[in-house]
Structure formats: C-alpha cells, structure tokens
Write a structure and sequence with these properties.
Layout lengths: L14 E7 L2 E8 L3 E6 L10 H7 L3 E7 L16 H14 L6 E6 H12 L6 E7 L8 H6 L6 H8 L24 H13 L1 H13 L2 H11 L6 E6 L7 H10 L4 E5 L6 H4 L1 H13 L8
Parallel strand pairs: 3-4, 3-5, 5-6, 6-7, 7-8
Antiparallel strand pairs: 1-2, 2-4
Helix pairs in contact: 1-11, 2-3, 3-8, 5-7, 6-7
C-alpha cells in the first residue's frame, strides 16, 4: 500500500501552520473567522476527525484544530511531556501561543478526557466547553483499549499491534475503528490515522509514551475541580456509544455546574463522522448562546 495519504489533511480544515510549544513544534489548522472554536482529538486520530464539522462551522466561526502527538501526527515530539497532564498543558499553551482568549473547546474520545484535565489545571482557559463522547471518571482509558493497546506502550511492539491495519478492510473491525463509528471510514482518512505509527519509529515512540501515562486518577482529579467550573458546558453524547456509557454523560451533566446534556442518536463515539450535521448544529447553537454574568 502506498503511503501517499499518511500526512494528508482535508482542505476543509483550513490552512496549516506550525507553532512552538514546550517540547517541540505543533501543527494547527485554521478555517473561517468569528468566535473561536478549538477542536481536540484523541488517540490514533488527527484533525481529519473534525473535517465534516469544521466544514459546516467555518462559514460562521473561526475553527482551530490541533494536531496532537497521539499516534497519527506528522511532527514527532521526542522531548515533550506526553503524560496526560503534559498534553493537557500543551493544549493550554497552544491556545495561548495562538493568542486566543477563552475560546469554546470541543473534545472527543481521549481528547475529551485531556480537555477536562486541561480545564481543571487552567480554569480560565475556555469561555465554554463541549464534551462529546469521551473518557471520564474511571474510564481513562476504556478497559477494552487498555487491554488491546497494552503492547503499544512499548515502541518495539507497537508496529506489530497495528500491522493488520495496513489492510483497509480490517479497520472496520471492533478492535480498530469499527465500534467507534457506525459509518464507513474513508480510505484516505484511515490511512492518515494508521500509517504514521506503522512507518515512523519516532511517531510510535511518542504514542508509547502517551499510552504509558494513561491513568484514571487524572480524570478523577479533573472532575473534582470541574465541580466548581463556572462557565457554560455542553455534553453532546452519542446515545449508542459502545465505550463511553450514557451514565457518564448524565454524571458529567450533574457534576459540572450548569452543564446541559444533549443526546446524539444513530452515532457511536465519533459522532462527528456519523452525525456531523447534528453535532455542528449543537455546537453552533451553544456557542451563540449568551454567557450568563456569573460565568464572566
């Protein structure tokens, strides 16, 4: 299989640029103007995850998508702290370097867990937050991935773990992306997710460092801090999610003051793939809502 799609990014994400953060260079993509929205992806995906939502929101909003060093990235960061708190601080630093004040932050999957950690450590970071189906509480990571991805904690084993995913048909299997999305994974998008870790030792080393830091103590600590969070929050959860239980959405909506819960039907974890129009409508409506005085 050709590696030509390995670093392909959908043009809907906008113009790429590189910024300097502690530990190295980080790629970001920007599209549109208006109120800023920062999108945070999880492990073994990249900004392509948000392409369908960004294309719907960029006519009215400034959409910034971070490319985090979580296994499907282009720029290796061997000197970066890739523990959960390290990546959370990287998100906060990137927002500061970009000069964005209190954007809306949208997180998904492990990126949603990292978003919670970032907000717990930097409570003034965001003007509002959207958590789609994501890691929370004791579920960081989900038990299924803790088991299946355990060998990937060691760079020498990572390629063996992901080698079957060179075969595009296998990417829809439950152990890959099949239980994360109901819709079909586009070949070019799938290539951009799996080929970096299969072909670049430095990317595999980054991912291994991130995986070794996974621990639910970080999300449990974060939610305790978020119980005092004084800014608007939207929980936009996939009702049929296989890894992130609806009960966690309900707990988040209760634990984060003033949070609102909205369900997304006919979608798994990647609602931005399965129901991008519904998710984009929820985000747009939420960002346009006036902020209550107490959240200032």
């Amino acid at each position: 299989m050709s590696n030509e799609n390995m670093f392909w990014r959908d043009s809907a994400l906008g113009k790429p640029r590189e910024i300097e953060v502690k530990g190295g260079r980080l790629r970001v993509f920007e599209a549109g103007t208006g109120e800023p929205i920062v999108f945070v992806h999880g492990a073994l995906v990249n900004p392509n995850l948000w392409r369908k939502v960004v294309s719907r929101l960029s006519p009215d909003f400034r959409c910034i998508t971070l490319e985090l060093p979580l296994g499907s990235h282009e720029i290796a960061m061997p000197d970066a702290d890739l523990s959960p708190t390290g990546v959370a601080d990287m998100i906060a630093e990137a927002i500061g370097v970009l000069g964005i004040e209190r954007p809306a932050i949208v997180g998904n999957d492990s990126g949603g867990g990292l978003t919670q950690i970032a907000l717990g450590r930097h409570p003034e970071l965001a003007g509002r937050v959207v958590l789609t189906s994501c890691d929370a509480y004791e579920n960081f990571p989900p038990r299924f991935f803790e088991i299946t991805l355990w060998p990937a904690r060691f760079p020498t084993l990572a390629r063996g773990v992901f080698a079957p995913l060179r075969i595009r048909a296998l990417r829809s299997a439950p152990f890959a992306y099949g239980w994360l999305m109901r819709s079909k994974l586009e070949p070019a998008v799938g290539d951009s997710y799996v080929l970096p870790i299969l072909t670049r030792k430095d990317i595999g080393a980054d991912f291994a460092r991130f995986m070794r830091g996974f621990d639910s103590k970080f999300t449990l600590e974060a939610i305790e801090k978020l119980k005092d969070y004084a800014r608007p929050a939207l929980i936009a959860w996939s009702r049929e999610d296989r890894f992130f239980p609806p009960a966690h959405a309900e707990r988040l909506a209760k634990d984060i003051p003033g949070a609102r819960l909205e369900w997304i039907d006919d979608a798994y974890t990647f609602s931005m793939e399965d129901q991008p129009e519904r998710l984009a409508e929820l985000i747009a409506g939420f960002v346009r809502e006036p902020v209550a005085a107490k959240a200032d």
